[in-house]
Design a protein that fits this description.
This protein has helices at 3-22, 24-34, 39-60. It has one domain (3-60). It is mostly helical. The longest helix has 22 residues, at 39-60. Pfam families: DUF2065.
Length: 61
């Protein structure tokens, strides 16, 4: 596995942990709200987020 990929995955874990550490109550409320959103909408939002991330990654490199 390339070092860059492992580094990126580690950074994701750090950022996720930061949200849980800084605002656990808000994170729990958000998780409850996400349960009420239909799966199709979540898939669309996920696809948009992946696309934005790939565009941003391309711009950085």
């Amino acid at each position: 596995m390339p070092v860059e990929l492992v580094s990126a995955l580690c950074l994701v874990v750090v950022i996720e942990g930061l949200f849980l550490f800084a605002a656990p109550g808000a994170w729990k409320r958000m998780a409850d709200r996400i349960q009420q959103i239909d799966e199709r909408t979540l898939r669309i939002v996920g696809a948009i987020m992946m696309g934005c991330g790939l565009v941003a990654l391309k711009m950085v490199h």
